[in-house]
Prior knowledge:
Layout lengths: L15 H19 L3 H15 L4 H14 L5
Amino acid sequence: MRxxxxxxxxxxxxxxxxxALVGILLTSLEALAAAGKPDEACRxxxxxxxxxxxxxxxxxxxxNALLHRLTKQVA
Length: 75
């Protein structure tokens, strides 16, 4: 019998609003890095990766790709 709690493997359908918010957050992190704060942008992108890894793999991949691009800017 399965409990009603959510396990890390549960994947809820990604809504259009969630997809739009991911795009907005990615753009915001890119702007943060361009404004001279790549460390902060990497930290936040890493947090997003951790939060999305099991629940939204497609969004996780987008944040992971951003994180890899931003690490080149970190001194």
